[in-house]
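Model: You mentioned two targets. I'll fold them one after the other.
Researcher: Yes, keep them separate.
Model: Target one:
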Amino acid sequence: MDIAQNAALVVVDVQKGFEEAEYWGTRNNPAADDNIAALIDAWQSTGRPVVFVRHDSVSPGSPLRTGYEGNGFKEYVERQRGRGSGDELLVTKRVNSAFLGTPDLGAWLREAEISQVVLAGIQTNMCVETTARMGGNLGYEVVVAFDATYTFGLEGPFGWRQSADELARASAVSLHGGGFATVVTTEDVLTAAK
């Protein structure tokens, strides 16, 4: 795997509100935050572009709602913002895909002639997966650093319940097997980005 010198790291929704376990339930992958931080460090130290995405929920009770403390980035992300020598962009969104936020992520990538994006963040099967699917559909080479993502268990129709690990694995299989993205580890990405 090759990581282009101008590949954009897209850090999806790494916000304080996801720490509210009573709202979200049990998460998986406790190492995700360390892996996300390592990716940001690597991108900033090599001058590659970083996109920080924030979900501004319009749901009144959401821990990610605008004006609530949980809407802000986690502390380690906030500390890292603005510290790299490469371009940086903040995208805000109200839906799952970072490609449907403000400013227009696709337009920014095209203007910078960036064709490869590396995704990390929260939640694996929601905003990370949706952004990856749209990115793949739009013709970008999408790489998902799987262990730099996490999610929560979820109940669906018919009383079916999937654990966070089950949902994350299903997301990885759908993205990779379906040709939307290449799903790899953080170590794979860091090695290729040197």
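Model: Target two:
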Amino acid sequence: MVDVETPDGERFDHHKVYLPSAAVLAMVDDLDRVYMMWRHRFVADLWNWELPGGLVDAGEKPAQTVVREALEETGYALTGDPEHVVMYEPMIGTVTSPHHIYIARGVVKVAEPTEKNEAQRTAWIPLDEVPALIAAGQIANSGTLIAVQHLLITRLAK
């Protein structure tokens, strides 16, 4: 519980939840496809396409997290530095949990994933197919939605 004072002077107690920071990576290849993982999320009990990512470990920078998570979850290594797109708060009214979105336009397969339970299947999905997946409810993760929408918007701006 925290004591809140609004700009007009009203005071009240409010719950505030602290969760770790997370980072998500959209890997895009030369054919304008994004690497995605089909996985079940037991809390919401739904299957959806997601991007690799995870919690930022203690002492780690979010950019290091996406490099580590990409290798662990996909077996891909980045050929350059990831591009930071945005930091956002997914539930800003009650929860603080900074989420960082990154884009990588160069990756190379160097190993098999070590995180075996991250995805039932994976695919390089053409960006042209992403709006239909969103409309069908097959992309529900907020970090994935923000990242792929960024890719679509910036592609239109070119």
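Researcher: Noted. Anything on target two?
Model: Residues 142-157 form the longest helix (16 residues).
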